[in-house]
UniProtKB/TrEMBL annotation:
InterPro entries, A to Z: AAA+_ATPase, ABC_transporter-like_ATP-bd, ABC_transporter-like_CS, ABC_transpr_LolD-like, MacB-like_ATP-bd, P-loop_NTPase
UniProt-listed Pfam families: ABC_tran
MF terms (GO), sorted A to Z: ATP binding
Protein name per Swiss-Prot or TrEMBL: ABC transporter ATP-binding protein
Domain ABC transporter: 25-247
Gene3D superfamilies, A to Z: P-loop containing nucleotide triphosphate hydrolases
Keywords: ATP-binding, Nucleotide-binding, Transport
Coiled-coil ranges per UniProt: none
Species: Actinocorallia longicatena
Domain of life according to the entry: Bacteria
Length: 248
């Protein structure tokens, strides 16, 4: 399977994370204030490589804000955000764009695909923008479509696909540049039960293959299924931080 083949292997049933590989994300006293209103933190959080972290909490508790800080889509009002040893809160526009394109893959509730590009072109676009050769883009796009079971839709436009298929396309696009982090904000929120289940299983497979994942969800069942660790936010603070080690 081309997804797991490029990931470090670990024994089946072994620990769900690789402690020796260190923290891939570190937030130190990070906070976000909008118009004078604190919506997140200050909070500190370390995420290890290979973790599958679920972020739960009621609507408005700061889940998306936290994810956006890690994605480099937003900056902390105070505190620091470090990813793979580098301070992303200090990056200038150009370096931040590069970080977002190459180190982070992001998946959203409503897919955010480009409707006038084919499935294959949607998936390949971030690689093309990152300067990957045409041949390599084609090869990786093909591998990902095959691994995610969407190859037969390669030349279709997203508007023709079901929600579950669109989310698979979005996940393939998020993975094309082999990101250190896969970040998903309510990835099953707009899906029916069956498609939601499929996407959930796909995320679990990716995590088994070694992918570090953060998934934001208000669905405790989704968190329970995917995560090796759950943080529960209330009013922008971490109310619960629970590790469910060694399940996978
Ligand atoms: P969640 O994802 O848990 O539902 P969010 O992180 O989206 O919560 O939002 C947390 C709080 O911050 C909410 O009260 C929201 O209205 C506010 N908020 C989020 N983004 C902005 C913004 N760009 N400007 C002003 N307020 C915002
Ligand atoms: Mg949200």
């Amino acid at each position: 399977d081309p997804i797991s083949a490029r990931r470090p292997t670990r024994p089946r049933g072994g620990p769900a994370y690789l402690p020796l590989m260190g923290n891939v994300i570190e937030l130190e006293n990070a906070s976000r204030v909008y118009d004078g209103t604190p919506v997140l933190g200050p909070l500190s959080l370390a995420v290890e490589q290979g973790e599958a972290l679920a972020v739960t909490g009621p609507s408005g508790s700061g889940k998306s804000t936290l994810l956006n800080l890690v994605a480099g889509l937003d900056k902390p009002t105070e505190g620091t955000v470090t990813v793979e040893g580098g301070r992303i809160d200090r990056l200038g526009e150009h370096a931040l764009a590069r970080y977002r394109r190459r180190r982070v893959g992001m998946v959203f509730q409503f897919f955010n695909l480009l409707d006038d590009l084919t499935v294959a072109d949607n998936i390949g676009l971030p690689a093309q923008l990152a300067g990957m050769s045409k041949a390599k883009v084609k090869e990786r796009t093909g591998d990902l479509m095959e691994a995610l079971g969407i190859q037969r839709h390669a030349r279709a436009y997203p508007g023709r696909l079901s929600g579950g298929e669109r989310q698979r396309v979005a996940i393939a696009r998020a993975l094309i540049n082999e990101p250190a982090l896969l970040l998903a904000d309510e990835p099953t929120g707009a899906l029916d039960t069956a498609s939601g289940h499929d996407v959930r299983e796909l995320l679990i497979d990716l995590h088994r293959g070694g992918q570090t994942i953060i998934v934001v969800t208000h669905d405790p069942a989704l968190a329970e299924a995917i995560a090796t660790r759950t943080i529960h936010l209330v009013d922008g603070g971490i109310a619960v931080d629970r590790t469910v080690g060694g399940r996978r």
